[in-house]
Design a protein that fits this description.
Chain lengths: ~80, ~350
C-alpha cells in the first residue's frame, strides 16, 4: 500500500536521507508518507521530493506534518 | 500566515543581505573581513563573560543576540516555536566544542570563510574546500546509519531559556557592568555601534529562520540531494559582500597578510574539514544552531553551549590561531577533534524506533 517514514524529532539531514532511502527501495506505484513534526524537517523533505522530481502533497494535522510522495500526480496537490 | 515571498526569493534575499551587511558592518567598525563571524563572535562573548581571558577578543557581540532573537521572533510569529530536546545532548555539546575549535584554528566560521573570500582573502577557498570535504565525510556516516536519535516535545518554558538568556546578554551589553570584560585593543575592540549590530542581527536572524539558511547544509544538500536551495544563499552572500567590499575599498586579493587570518594551507584546510564534518553531524552550521536554539530546540541550545565552551578552552589552552599562524597545540587539537568526530560518526548509530 504505502511506506511510512517516521522522521519526527530527527535533525537534518536524517529526514532527507530516510526519504531518499525509502524512494530508492519503493516498488513502482507505492506511495511514501513521511511524518515530520518540525517546519524545518517538513521543508527539507519537500525539497527532497522536488529535487527527485516527484509529486508530493502536504497535510498538516495540529503539530504534525504528513508529506505524501509518489511518482504519479497526487490528487489535490497542494503546497 | 500567507507567504509574501517565494522560498527561493526569500533565501537569496537572506543571503544577499547577510553579505551586504557584513561588508557594511566592517565599514561601521567590525574587524576586517569579519562583518559577521558566528564562531569569532561567540568566542568574543565567551571572553566578555570571563570564560577566557584573552584580552584582545572580549566583547558582547550584539549580532549573536540579534540572530537568536530575530529567529525567535520569526519562529513565534509563524507558529514554528516548538520546545523540544533529548537527542544526544552530550554528543552535541562535544561536537559543538569541536566545531568551535576547528573554526578558531581557521580563524572563521563557514560564513567568515565566504566573507574572507569576498574580501580577497584567497585562503577562504582553502577553507571552503575543507568544509566541502567535511560535509562529504558527514554524508558518508549518515548513509551508514549515523543519527543522534529523536527529540521529543518538552514543556514550552524550556524553550524560552535561550531567548531570555539572550535578552539578559543584551542587557549586559547595554549596561556594561564592571564584571564584563571589553577589549581595548585587538579584534575585540573593533565593533560597530550596538544598535546597528543588534539591528542587523535581528533582521538577518529573522530571515535566516524563515529561509532555513545554513552555510554547511548548503554543501551537504548539493552532494546529498543535488539541490541548490541552501547554496543559493551562500552564493548571494558572497556576491553581496564582494560587491560592497569593492565599493567600500575593502578588497585586497592574495593569500598573505590578510586581516585576522593566516595562510597555512594545511591547517586552514584540515580545521575546516573538522568544522564541515562536525557541523554536518550536528545538522547545521553555527548560525543554524543559534537560530534553532531560538526556535525552542534545546539540543541546538546545548550545541550553542558547546560552542561557547570550545571557545573558552581554545583560548585557555592556546589552541586558537593568530595572524602569525596556527598555535603550538591548535593543529594537535584539530587532529584529535577529527579522530573524535570520526568515532562519533562511526559509532552513533542507534536504531530509530
Amino acid at each position: 500500500m504505502h511506506i511510512t517514514i517516521d522522521a519526527r524529532g530527527l535533525s537534518c539531514p536524517m529526514p532527507q536521507q530516510m526519504t531518499i532511502n525509502a524512494i530508492r527501495t519503493a516498488k513502482p506505484g507505492k506511495m511514501i508518507i513521511v511524518l515530520a513534526d518540525e517546519a524545518g524537517a517538513r521543508d527539507s523533505v519537500i525539497r527532497t521530493a522536488r529535487a527527485l522530481q516527484l509529486h508530493y502533497k502536504l497535510e498538516r494535522n495540529a503539530d504534525e506534518y504528513k508529506i505524501y510522495i509518489s511518482r504519479e500526480e497526487l490528487w489535490m496537490e497542494k503546497r | 500566515m500567507r507567504r509574501f515571498f517565494k522560498p527561493k526569493t526569500l533565501i537569496i534575499l537572506a543571503g544577499l543581505l547577510m553579505g551586504v551587511f557584513a561588508a557594511l558592518l566592517v565599514k561601521w567598525g567590525n574587524p576586517p573581513n569579519m562583518g559577521v563571524c558566528v564562531a569569532c563572535f561567540m568566542r568574543d562573548i565567551a571572553g566578555a563573560l570571563g570564560l577566557h581571558r584573552a584580552g584582545v577578543v572580549q566583547y558582547l557581540r550584539p549580532e549573536i543576540v540579534g540572530f537568536v532573537l530575530g529567529g525567535f521572533i520569526a519562529a513565534y510569529a509563524f507558529g514554528e516555536f516548538r520546545a523540544r530536546g533529548g537527542s544526544s545532548p552530550l554528543a552535541r555539546f562535544l561536537l559543538g566544542a569541536l566545531v568551535m575549535i576547528g573554526a578558531l584554528v581557521f580563524l572563521g566560521c563557514p560564513i567568515r570563510a565566504i566573507l574572507r573570500l569576498a574580501g580577497g582573502d584567497l585562503n577562504g577557498i582553502i577553507g571552503l574546500a575543507g568544509i566541502a570535504i567535511g560535509a562529504l565525510a558527514g554524508i558518508f556516516f549518515i548513509k551508514r546509519g549515523y543519527n543522534l536519535g529523536r527529540a521529543i516535545r518538552i514543556p514550552a518554558v524550556a524553550g524560552w531559556i535561550v531567548p531570555l538568556a539572550m535578552i539578559g546578554l543584551l542587557l549586559l551589553a547595554v549596561f556594561q557592568p564592571g564584571f564584563i570584560f571589553s577589549s581595548e585593543k585587538g579584534p575585540g575592540s573593533l565593533h560597530a555601534a550596538l544598535s546597528i549590530s543588534l539591528g542587523v542581527g535581528l533582521l538577518v536572524g529573522f530571515l535566516s529562520q524563515r529561509s532555513r539558511m545554513c552555510f554547511v547544509g548548503a554543501w551537504r544538500d548539493i552532494f546529498l540531494l543535488r539541490d541548490g536551495y541552501l547554496m543559493s544563499a551562500v552564493v548571494a552572500c558572497f556576491m553581496g559582500a564582494l560587491v560592497f567590499n569593492l565599493i567600500l575599498g575593502q578588497f585586497y586579493l592574495g593569500f598573505e597578510g590578510q586581516p585576522v587570518a593566516h595562510s597555512s594551507y594545511l591547517w586552514n584546510f584540515l580545521s575546516m574539514v573538522l568544522v564541515g564534518l562536525a557541523a554536518t553531524l550536528l545538522g547545521g552550521c553555527p548560525l543554524r544552531q543559534l537560530i534553532l536554539s531560538g526556535e525552542g530546540d534545546t539540543d541546538a541550545a546545548v550545541t550553542v553551549l558547546g560552542l561557547f565552551a570550545g571557545a573558552a578552552f581554545a583560548h585557555n589552552f592556546g589552541l586558537a590561531s593568530t595572524a602569525a599562524g596556527p598555535s603550538a597545540f591548535g593543529p594537535l587539537a584539530v587532529i584529535l577533534g577529527l579522530v573524535i568526530t570520526i568515532c562519533l560518526g562511526l559509532l552513533m548509530r542507534g536504531r530509530l524506533t
